[in-house]
Amino acid sequence: MRRARVLFVVGSCSVTLALSFIGCSSQSDTPAGSGQAGQAGAKTSGQAGSSASGRGGSGGLPSSNGQSGASSGATSAGGSPGNSGSGGTAQAGASTGGSSSSAGHSGAGTAGAGTAGAGTAGAGTAGAGTAGAGTAGAGTAGAGTAGAGTAGAGTGGAGGTNGMSSGCGKPPTIASNMYNNGKNIPITAASMQRRYILSVPTNYSNAKPYKLVIAWHQRDGNDNQMYANKYYHLQPLSNDTTIFVAPNGQQNGAPCTGSGNGESGCGWPNPSGSDMALADAVVSQIEENFCIDTNRIFATGWSYGGSMSYETACQRPLGGMVDGKPGFIRAIAVYSGSQLSGSCTPSKPVGYYASHGSKDSVLCYDDTKAAGCQVGNGLLLAQNFAKANGCTWMTPTKVTSGNHVCTTLTGCMTGYPEQFCSFNGDHTPDPSDGGGTSWEYQNAWNFLNQF
To answer: What phi and psi values does residue 213 have, to the nearest 5 degrees?
Structure first.
């Protein structure tokens, strides 16, 4: 289903390329696509939440028919993938620390905390935490919703009320033949003609709000690639609860325009905030056309895409205001990321999930510059958001052999958990334990879905 069949020539990751912020790897650079269920996963240190079963294919490039571990193509030096396989299913994964309380949407005057109980009936999705009031963002917290909510995953999510975008209750003006089929939707941002790809649940109803996930591709990737691998394989796990969007990158000050599965040099340098302007424009257009839960907008990405996810969260935190721009990001999932798309220092809390290989040769795991990497510090990104989230910082367990370990920080502000997963491997979005199926995407979805 929806598979591009463009293959790329294998290349090597040189120091020069690494300094150009590429997303290359000695392993596969695109999310694998095994169709088989994942294995039970790793130990967890810290508060609440074991990480568990994985999904997706092995670290090798997936075949288009979804067979686990089969390499059907080669990667370019910049990490463009071959064909994506179909997403597999997995067991329930990580539950994380923190208690329920959703952030109020900036300017909305409402926040909401809690599960069914004292509130009035509504369509909000109940989280797994306990009901309670409190302030969040700019608005004051309201009573928890009762009635139609379904229980969220994990033990530390944000329950509370849904935000309702302006697209609720009306038909979209984006033509139906422009989404759910991989077509590139044009949009203007920062005086440039950009584009994105959109996927909407097949049972979409404008009477109820949906989560929104922004999938930022890696360098040498593009929006077509994100559509082909089902937005880092999160779409099959979402069970028709979420709208997915994949913006397309730029290079050398101009929009990427390639029509294949990936494009050499395409990434997120964000000059003069032009990629942030794209994020603003895309979210605004989707909110105007579809019924979006404005309290549950997320970002995710690998490598350069992880960098852009971090920058989006830092500059557009839900309930925050940066440079006169209201925020919208509730939580993010960063795979092998670094700070390459700006220099923002987080000042507002955002739920934070990250994974990184201790032998990453492209973007460094920490400040030891091991494995020949020259740029980046994935651990520092986690530490920055730990401070913004009010967490008690403890250096996560660093795995150099054996299975991955996910550390959940303690002491975080209610509703703003943080989890960091370390694995014994190189620069890849598809880490696995001992060559089995990847545990990554089920972990990431469980984290995002708790809110």
So the answer is: -120, 125
Q: Which of 135, 70, 65 is nearest to 102 (CA)?
A: 135
Domains of the chain are 15-96+168-449 (3.40.50.1820)
Give 383-420 as a DSSP string. Answer: HHHHHHTT-B--PPPPPSSSS-EEEE-BSPPTT--EEE
User: Which of 434, 435, 432, 426 has the alpha carbon at shortest distance from 359?
Assistant: 426
B/e letters for 172-207, b = 16+ CB within 10 Å, e = fewer, are bebeeeebbebebbebebbeeebbbbbbbbeebeee
CB 84 within 8 A of CB 224: no
User: Can you tell me the distance from the alpha carbon of 124 to that of 208, in angstroms, rounded to the nearest whole number?
Assistant: 9
pLDDT in tens, 34-56: 333 333 333 333 333 333 333 33
Tens-place pLDDT, residues 217-275: 999 999 999 999 999 999 999 999 999 999 999 999 999 999 999 999 999 999 999 99
Torsions phi, psi of 412, nearest 5?
-65, 155
96 Cβ neighbours under 8 A, 6+ residues apart: 48, 49, 154, 155, 156, 353, 408, 417, 419, 446, 447, 450
Q: Model-level pTM? A: 0.70
Q: Can you give the length of the chain in residues?
A: 451
Paired tokens of 398 = 């660093």
Neighbours of 324 (CB within 10 A): 5
Query: Are 144 and 264 contacting, i.e. CB atoms less than 8 angstroms apart?
Result: no
Q: Are 262 and 80 in contact (CB under 8 A)?
A: yes
Cβ within 8 Å of residue 145, ≥6 positions away: 112, 114, 115, 116, 119, 120, 121, 122, 123, 124, 125, 126, 159, 160, 161, 162
Q: In this structure, how many other beta carbons lie within 10 angstroms of the beta carbon of residue 155?
A: 19
Which token pair is 291?
């019924």
CB 320 within 8 A of CB 386: no
